[in-house]
Amino acid sequence: MKLVALVFGVLAFINVQAQTIQDGLALIHTERYNEAGQLFKKLAEGTPSPENQYYLGYYYVKTNQLDEAQKAFEKGVSLEDKSYLNQVGLGTVALGKGDKAKAKTIFEEAEKKKKKEAEVLYRIGEAYTLFEKNSDPAEAIRLLDEAVKRDKNLADAYISKGDALMLRNEGGAAATAYEYALTAKPNYAVAHNRIGEIYLRGKNYNLALENYKKAIEADPNFAPAYKDLAELYYLGQKYKQAAENFDLFMQKSGSTDPELELRGTQFAFVADDYAKALQGLDKLKGRSNNPFIKRMYGWSYFKTNETDKAIQSLDEFIKEVPDKVIGDDYKYLGRALNQKAVAAGQPYDSTALTYILKGASLDTNKVEAAVTYKEVGALTYAAKDYDKAIDAYAKGIALDSSAKTIINDYYYLGLSYFQKASRTIASGADSAQILQAKRALNIKADSIFSIVTVKSPEWPYGYYWRGVALYNAYDRQENIDKGISAPHYAKFAEIAEKDTTDQGKYKGFYKVVYPYLAFYSSSTLKDDAKSKEYWNKLLKADPENVNAKEALGLSAPAAQPAAAAPAKKK
Hints:
TPR_rpt, Sel1-like, signal, Tetratricopeptide repeat protein, TPR-like_helical_dom_sf
């Protein structure tokens, strides 16, 4: 009975050891490297066997700590010089360091001595897939095929074969290898995820998504699937889902890798979670020298209204890596400077405007450049800097004439010409020339508003501003005598009068349109009835209107029609 107890005790110990090693390998597969390292170190310290030394070294290889891996493998060999797994480990380190000849010599010796052992053949074959620059897919496939001949249930050998085939861009054959892994180990998360990666590379995003989800169903703690899902959602511009899945990857993996933390911060940033992005950036201080961190700081500070910090971060980024600067860097710097100027009571900052326009000029995407030029147009129009507004709107329209905002863009371009004309005052010896220039500006405004009426025939304001621009382009009496503005004002009235939602919003416009049409009807068309009709319409829209009351015999003499209502879009 004592002997039986001893035998079963030894077997139980061996099984615990094997299971513990498998647990460590599972942690590596799920990229929980910190936990895997702790486990293998504990095993090697507790029981310094050749096997435990090999797996400790293997952990170091997988985390790219080749010098530490070499120490572990050398200790394993010192414990047993015929430990061929540790010899394979030393060959793997040599291969990783670029010494292919040394690696080949070691591998050939191990294969010769242990050609019947599937595990040794598998580890040599796997080694040839671990370092892309020093890989040998053909040799890997040969060895891995030999390994599965000896153990058809060695699922990870099929995984490595698939990896080797992917190094040769043989996606179909790789998928078959991964499917064999599923046969050897049903519902294996690693295999499902690898198949998902093949579909992602082939841009079959639906099947990639399906296989990533299968990996998670097979093992909810399989971290790589969450990372790959994040990248997939990012490609699909589903940034919130991308950020959520990358967060899950970081939680499941327990990673403290600064580069991965930076990637997670980037996902938070593109998902518009700028507060979280700033938290992530703060955690990376002193742990990452990536210059793009200052760009992310600058953009995020701007988005969270920390203007001074945004200006400082972007200014430093632009000075430190000028060859990496893109249009948006200048745009955000300009917007931050402008935000500060507006807070100080200025309409805009001239330096800010220069930066924003520089950003637009660097845009490789015409649509984005167009949006920026129109942004400058709106900014300068509001500041009554109509020359700059005209230039900006014209550039924006030229770059993207099919934009959803195009009617609005043409509208404000027309208003910019009209407002510039209104502020052109004739005086001195050049009065005639100035008047001619003013007329040309109004006619240009009319031509722009005509585009608005073509593109939006049921929108009344384009017609209104055609009438106003032409009224100002000609002598007033000449305009009424010839009815130059009449068809445009009449069309405005026709459309506006049909609006049953809110007639009050047209009151200011009616005060210009109806008097003109009334005077035109009586003096040019000699139609007093029609004239009276327009005066009554004005009185209905504006019951206290003095002009309408006088024309209808209700008060003092009427004035001539006004030049224009305020330049206001309704």
